[in-house]
Amino acid sequence: MMSAQPRTQIASGKEFLFSLALALLALQCGCGLQTVRYFLPAGTTEPTGYGLYSYVLFAHPPSDQELPSYRAIAKAYLQMLTQGSPTPSRPESLNATFLPVKRGLQTELNQFSTARSGKLSDEQLDHVIRDLYDYDRAGELLEKLQHSHTGGPYIVSNRTALSLANGVQEPYLDQDITACGASPEFAGPWVRIFERISAEQNWASQKLNVFAIDLIAALSTAGEQVGIAAPAIQQAIKLISGKKTESK
Questions:
Q1: Cβ neighbours for 20, distance < 8 A, ≥ 6 positions apart
Q2: Rounded CA separation 86/152 (Å)
Q3: N- or C-end of the chain: fewer Cβ atoms within 10 A?
Q4: Is residue 62 a contact partner of residue 180, using CB atoms and an 8 Å limit?
Q5: Distance CA 4, CA 9 (A)
Q6: Residues 216, 121: Cα–Cα separation, whole Å
Q7: Is 13 strand, coil or helix?
Q8: Worst-scoring range by mean pLDDT, 4-8, 110-114, 170-174, 232-236?
Q9: Are 133 and 71 in contact (CB under 8 A)?
Q10: Peptide bond connecting 6 to the previous residue in cis, omega within 30 degrees of 0
């Protein structure tokens, strides 16, 4: 009985530090911009005009060991990011983050669009991950990138929509969320920090390399609280030159 108390205190301490880090990031963001999210059903393309296009990409269905990280990422994506509008205001200033999903599930997916903290059970998250997520589409998007993606999960960001090009046309930002040895408890905060930092940027003028520096700095600070060294974060976030190809 006595041994359980320290573990509870440590977990609570980590939760507090993450909450504090996110609160500080929110205070720093005075631009009033957002990171918005869209489901990307099979056979459809992204809305045009956004300043940055990002994607939550699972290279394969999760093993039992990977499932907690997948759940944390899906939960953070569904709860923290604002559902994108069909007619957004100033889309060129915003980052839109996409989740590939299977066709014909929009009614079912809409129930997750209004999810609030604590309202998504593991069973619901597993349904999104195993039944609704489109692994084939994610694989097609990953194939457009410069190097092999067999691990992950990944967040990939590019100035142009991946579905509309045969390959990446510009430098893109590649985040391998678990490459640094992060535990599932850090996967959710990673997505939240990405949302906060990307919302600070005006993507009509911001450069991807500046965003990468800001993101690495914020994640390195948060990672220190759970024993992840800054060099490991730097290795997990890479700005990669894209292949010069023509749009479809």
A1: none
A2: 30
A3: N
A4: no
A5: 9
A6: 31
A7: helix
A8: 4-8
A9: no
A10: no
Helix (H, G, I), strand (E, B) or coil at 83: strand
How far apart are alpha carbons 5 and 61 in whole angstroms? 35
Asked if 138 and 59 count as a contact pair (C-beta separation under 8 A), the reply is yes
Cα–Cα dist 180/233, whole Å: 6
Q: Which of 33, 91, 57, 36 is nearest to 163 (CA)?
A: 57
Paired tokens of 11: 């977990």
User: Could you tell me which of 246, 219, 241, 208 has the C-alpha nearest to residue 51?
Assistant: 208
Q: Quote the pLDDT of residue 110.
A: 64
The DSSP result for 206-236, as a single string, is --HHHHHHHHHHHHHHHHHTTT--HHHHHHH
Spatial distance between the Cα atoms of 119 and 135, rounded to a whole number of angstroms? 25
Asked whether the beta carbons of 208 and 173 are under 8 A apart, the reply is yes
Mean pLDDT calculated for residue range 79-91: 74
> What is the per-residue pLDDT for 108?
67
**In the chain, what is the greatest distance between 2 CA atoms, to the nearest angstrom?**
64
